[in-house]
Amino acid sequence: MGFVHRSRRGAELFLLLIALAVGIGAYAAVGLGVQGEIPVDILTYGGWLSALVLVCHVTLRFTAPYADPVLLPLVAALNGLGLAVIHRIDLARGRFDGGLAQQQLVWMTLGVGLFVATMVVVRDHRLLQRFTYTSALAALVLLLLPMVPGIGHSTLGANIWIKIGGMTFQPGEIAKVLLVITFAGYLVQHRDALALAGRRVLFVDLPRGRDLGPILAMWLVCIGILGVQKDLGSALLFFGLFLVLLYVSTERSGWLVVGGILFVVGATAAYTFFGHVQNRVRIWRDPMDYYQSLPGSGQLVDSMFGMAWGGLMGRGFGEGKPWLIPVVESDFIIAAIGEELGLTAVMALLLCYGLIVERALRTALICRDGFGKLLATGLGAVIALQVFVVIGGVTGLIPLTGLTTPFLSYGGSSLIANWIIVALLARVSDHARKPPPDLTPHAAPDDSESTQVVRLR
Amino acid sequence: MNKPIRTISVFCLLLFVALMANVTKLQVFDAPELAESKYNKRVIDEQFSRERGAILVGRDPVAQSVPVESRYEFQREYPQPRLYAHVTGRFNYYGSTGLERSQAEVLSGDDSRLFVNRVVDMLANRSPKGGNVELTIDAAAQKAAYDGLSALPGKVQGAVVAIEPKTGKVLAMVSLPSYDVNKLADHDLNNVNKVHDKLNADPTQPLVNRATQLRLPPGSTFKLVTAAAAMEYEGYSSTSQVPGGDTYQLPGTKGETGEIDNGGRSCGKKKVSFAQAMGQSCNTTFAQLAVEVGGKNMAKQATKFGFGKVYLDDLDQVESNFPADTDPAETGQTGIGQFEVAATPLQMAMVAAGIANDGVVMKPYLVDELSTPSLNVLDQNDPKELSRATSAKTAKQLTDLLVATVDSGTASPAAIRGVKVAGKTGTAQSGIDHVPPYAWFTSYAPAYDPEVAVAVMIQSADVDRGEVAGGKLGGPIAKAVMEAVINR
């Protein structure tokens, strides 16, 4: 291994300043555009945002000096822009004091806290492999929580929230992270058995039941729960995640074929048996025809109207009518951005997400241990799939399923979960980019035959 | 595990490329289509909030946008709502009618001729302002028409159209009952809906512009067309003797249903002078003339005057009708404006105007001039010839007959002291029991140098059935309108 990564913390700091300029600049632009003046709290707001970002940066300097330097700035920019847009919608809806942006800032603070805690506690990601089964259990419990009477809370037809003391929370978001750990831990442990042992049935090498069984069962239960809760977006996400990790760990493209067939079968079954799935598909195919029906395409078409109204350059902050789009703060925030900041901004955001995914997969490529590879791949895939499902949904590319846009959408559970994902990615990337431990200090210099071959990939 | 990770990377790349392509399609290529959707509140709001140009009669606006403190920045206001309702039409959240619709491009400022203004507005960071539309309407004539119709007793249903024969300029256009357009331009959309529903359900149909959208049997005023056809195709002149008689049995009919009489007016024994036949509005004469001319040539003559054509660009217009392929008995009936003959008041005004203008029918128009928000002229409408209806000679002779009709015939109520007036009355059977006949009146003046041609149609008023007569009801209204134009 001739190449040694540099830590690049200085580059990260520079990029973070740009990210802060985006976030704070957007906040000022909202004030100028909507109220005609720079917000009076710009200093406290900007200061707070800068402090949060700097805390992350300093944490990385101390706990993971070799962590990927691009990851944190991307996340900071997205989160900052999201806050500004939520603030803009607050103003449009007449929430001048406090509002959702302030709550989101609290959630972000909490997210950053968890980021720091994760970096400090998880000094080596391989530690997490020990919790393969624990996190499986925890994920199941979290997924089941919304179905517990008393704390379960249903909004817009999906029973995926819990409500404790006035606070709503979507435990599935955290379960998402736990499932990545579970899948990665299990699959890395059983990958040889999965890949080698088994029978060949119709061109496909099927693994033995005892190797694949438990994780398959676990996965089926999750999908089942989500099916009952009518959370199609998350079900799709978990399915894709499982498939990706199975394929990466076994290196057998046959799994993609099997997965593809299963997807078609599952989708057909869901379409056949669930009325709400049929509605979604119908609405997706002819959104204009169902604008006024209930349940109809109102949300989707309003979102498309908004984005079309924005066009290439957008109307500018304060010049659009994002309040005409339902739940614009969460699922449809990309439509508000498309309307007021235009295609240009949407493209930039998609590039940011694409870069995050790219950094995650790059980390997976250079990572030296299987668990880390699977973990990074899984986390990257989660972000890619989630962005695809939600943005594809609100722009009419695929049928609409409710999910949040990572870091942009209003929502505490999502924000916290995503900050933890970033922390884990930073941890794995630090490990991957760190100069390899010197394994030859005691080798006798004259013994040319003793060169140890270490399989790094 | 690196090979599958690379595969996954490519897959993720494809996902993002798909997203980007789709968003581009949505925000760039589909955007124009989405902007046209009737559900798109943004586009409607934007149009509704804009400062539209004014519609002007002379120097006075009859429709204008005034700034208001509301969620829409401008309120459309109609200073004389009932007088001009059917001409301006209305502009509201749900759409527009009348000139508000046909001139929407100029009024909203989207017209390509206003491009420079738009650019200037954009550079000055002003919201774009629409151009103005100046009408051909003569305010005095319009008022005379409106007052004349309204003065009739009861809830009047009728219309008046006045045209400048030499140009086709519409000088007056009134339809009753009218309505308060301002109530339909309200920013309180609930109120607008309520008012609209009520107007829509009203059996007297106030929303219909009777001047251009309602066609009725024109009765005796159609005799102008019959007379023109007789001169053009059968060689009659104003001094000819024409067939007369107290009754006329339509060809191929027997008994009373096929018999035409003159309501007691004097129309000679077998022959009568053309002047007397026109002056007394002899049904027997014109039925026989039509039979002589024949259905085909009658239809040709009607078409030359504009029947069966759409010629008005500014407002919704229904075509007037002359039936095709009539048998001789039906042709006889068409000669006196019955059977399936149906004309709008605008059409009858054009018949009069065509004869007044030496037989040339001009294309009617309502928009005189378009101007920028700062009243610089953008475009001026030029008169256009629609068709030649009769020779100049025929037109001159018809005028002689019509002048005689006003001087000593049924059209005398339209006589103006010191001015030669040409006119013709009409009282048309509605063809429906219990519905009184329609009263018509067409005229122009001064007869040999015409400035104005008028058609008056009274569909119903609170008048005894026997009292309904074109001359008595319509004559004074036509006179008032002509005077308003001549004395301006």
From TrEMBL, chain A:
Coiled-coil segments on the chain, per record: none
Keyword Transmembrane helix: yes
Pfam families reported for this sequence: FTSW_RODA_SPOVE (PF01098)
TM helices/strands, residue ranges: 38-58, 70-89, 104-122, 131-149, 169-188, 209-226, 232-248, 255-274, 332-353, 374-401, 407-426
Record's bilayer topology term: Multi-pass membrane protein
Catalysis: reaction(s): [GlcNAc-(1->4)-Mur2Ac(oyl-L-Ala-gamma-D-Glu-L-Lys-D-Ala-D-Ala)](n)-di-trans,octa-cis-undecaprenyl diphosphate + beta-D-GlcNAc-(1->4)-Mur2Ac(oyl-L-Ala-gamma-D-Glu-L-Lys-D-Ala-D-Ala)-di-trans,octa-cis-undecaprenyl diphosphate = [GlcNAc-(1->4)-Mur2Ac(oyl-L-Ala-gamma-D-Glu-L-Lys-D-Ala-D-Ala)](n+1)-di-trans,octa-cis-undecaprenyl diphosphate + di-trans,octa-cis-undecaprenyl diphosphate + H(+)
EC number: 2.4.99.28
Cell compartments where the protein resides: Membrane
Pathway in which the depicted protein is active: Cell wall biogenesis; peptidoglycan biosynthesis
Keywords: Cell shape, Membrane, Transmembrane, Transmembrane helix
Keyword Iron included in the entry's annotation: no
Region listing for Disordered, in residue ranges: 435-457
Record-given protein name: peptidoglycan glycosyltransferase
TrEMBL record, chain B:
Native species: Nocardioides yefusunii
Gene3D superfamilies linked to this entry: DD-peptidase/beta-lactamase superfamily, Penicillin-binding protein 2a (Domain 2)
A UniProt-annotated Pfam family: Transpeptidase
Start and end residues of each Penicillin-binding protein transpeptidase domain: 158-483
Transmembrane segments: none
Residue ranges of domain Penicillin binding protein A dimerisation in the record: 52-133
Protein name: Peptidoglycan D,D-transpeptidase FtsI family protein
